[in-house]
Amino acid sequence: MTDxxxxxxxxxxxxxxxxxxxxxxxxxxxxxxxVVVVDIDGTAAEAVAAALPGPALAVQADVSDEEHVARYxxxxxxxxxxxxxxHLNAGIFGTFATLPDISRADFERVMNVNVTGQFLxxxxxxxxxxxxxxxxxxxxxxxxxxxxxxxxxxxYVTSKHAVVGLVHAAAMYGGPLGIRVNGLAPGIVxxxxxxxxxxxxxxxxxxxQRASTTPLRRAGRAEEIAASxxxxxxxxxxxxxxxxxxxDGGASIVNTVRP
Length: 259
Ligand code: NAD
What we know:
By secondary structure, this protein is of the alpha/beta class. It has helices at residues 19-30, 42-51, 66-80, 104-131, 154-174, 192-198, 207-211, 222-233, and strands at 10-14, 34-39, 56-60, 85-88, 137-141, 180-186, 244-247. A 7-stranded parallel sheet has the order 3-2-1-4-5-6-7, with helices on both faces. The mean pLDDT is 94. The protein contains 8 helices and 7 strands. The longest helix has 28 residues, at 104-131. The protein binds nicotinamide-adenine-dinucleotide.
């Protein structure tokens, strides 16, 4: 474990009450960051923050609500004085359905959290960097679904492709200011997201089977994704911006036409 890469830095992690965000909060904290644990589930956020090894603050917030975003930012600055690192991670699957059966409400709900939520977080981050007159570093959770399709998850796939657009556009704006913006595209990692999918008719309940067909022949662990996030948020990736890094056991390189 590399200690201290984030000593003296403040990090905000959204969707940090569970799964990949929780692992990210733990990793950043273990390397010295003060961490603001943001989640729509306030109880989960409190539990994660209380267990972190370093300074931490839990904030209940819905990332798709502008006022909530302003609230977590205000609380972070009031507690720690400034914010350096953002892992904008909160996201939802939506309902499994094929195209004719997708409701407009479900499409908009997924876009609202996965795209509008990421936009609001990005905008708040840049506004805060300008206010504190020094930049930082941002990572957005994209997905293998940012790079590939899926017949029964169109809203999710569309939203995660849009996250790539956010990464590219924000990196273009941030680059001359010394602010890096990258995306992280996890493959299959058993979290509550997938547990919920497994109970959904037609959902991804063959997760282990699908993971076994990837080059590394297994699902990923949340800690492995968190390690890649830490890389992107650290100076170890100082010449990388505007990229979406797959952390997927090689899943995104598989040619299903000619295996
Ligand atoms: P998860 O369901 O385990 O955790 C997501 C967390 O986000 C939960 O604590 C939930 O309460 C919170 N959340 C949901 N909506 C929110 C909102 N509107 N505002 C604030 N918090 C909210 O899911 P996960 O697997 O950890 O997924 C995290 C991110 O990783 C998502 O963006 C997801 O799309 C992405 N992802 C996950 C996988 C995977 O295999 N698990 C693969 C690719 C991408």
